[in-house]
Amino acid sequence: QVQLVESGGGLVQVGGSLRLSCAASGSIFSVNAMGWYRQAPGKQRDLVATITSGGSTNYADSVKGRFTISRDNAKNTVYLQMNSLKPEDTAVYYCNADIHNVFGGISVSWGQGTQVTVSS
Question: 73 pLDDT exceeds 90?
């Protein structure tokens, strides 16, 4: 079993910052790509940012220059630093990871989600 546990969401004013964390735990052999997605009410879940095990990153155009994804491979943890937040960033943010488990299987795991609300 593999779990992803997110933390760091909350309420922030326009222009403020938040840092999300997501830690993977369980029967992990290795963690490949990790990422963040978000889902606003009534909308589909969209990609925010991804990062490979080697540190290559990819961002949605809407967050480029404002959000930074990073990871600590020793801790199997991915972070999302969010600056200059806008009301349209309000959503539930989900962590995602491609994980090789100790039993030889590969799975895509999701966290439970953390709410980010940007108030004007």
Answer: yes
